[in-house]
Amino acid sequence: MSLDQPSETWDWADVDTVLALLPTFEDPNFKPCEWESSRRLEDGSWSMPYPIYCAPVEELYSLIAKLWIHPYELLPEDPPEIELQRLVFTADYFATASVNQVRRYFALCKRRERFCDGYIEAEFIDGTVVAALHRMQTLRGDV
Using one digit for the tens of pLDDT, what is the confidence trace for 84-128? Predict the structure, then answer.
């Protein structure tokens, strides 16, 4: 899905499928990815290390695509001083986040991974992905 064609429609069945992955991500032994080592290429140059995400993470981001929202558009519930390009998400952010703010978080994670290998891994390590999913679970229960 491109940035100029956001999907504004989704249903709770998609969210339920995403939430089914939560116990996997909460497991203390969960490891979101393995890193491919650098190696010499045929032309003599070296490749950069990069993450290879495990199947549950790949599944999460495949499912999240159905919940996609434009990551750089302000939402009515956003505070007026928010700068989306510099927005740093913490577990505290999700205490009051709306459904669309959680959706935007996942869209931004995917975008940021594109420009910084390992971004999604870091979001798992610091607990932000799980906090976002817990918020989605709470919002799902409020429906």
Answer: 778 888 888 999 999 899 999 999 999 999 999 999 999 999 999
User: How many CB atoms neighbour CB 78 within 10 A?
Assistant: 15
Residue 6 lies in a domain: no
Q: How many Cβ atoms from other residues are within 10 Å of residue 142's Cβ? A: 6
pTM of the full structure = 0.84
Total domains, the chain = 1
How many CB atoms within 10 Å of residue 103? 25
Residue 107 lies in a domain: yes
The three-class DSSP label of residue 21 is coil
Residue 7 resides in a domain: no
Residue pair 108/129 in contact by the 8 Å Cβ criterion: no
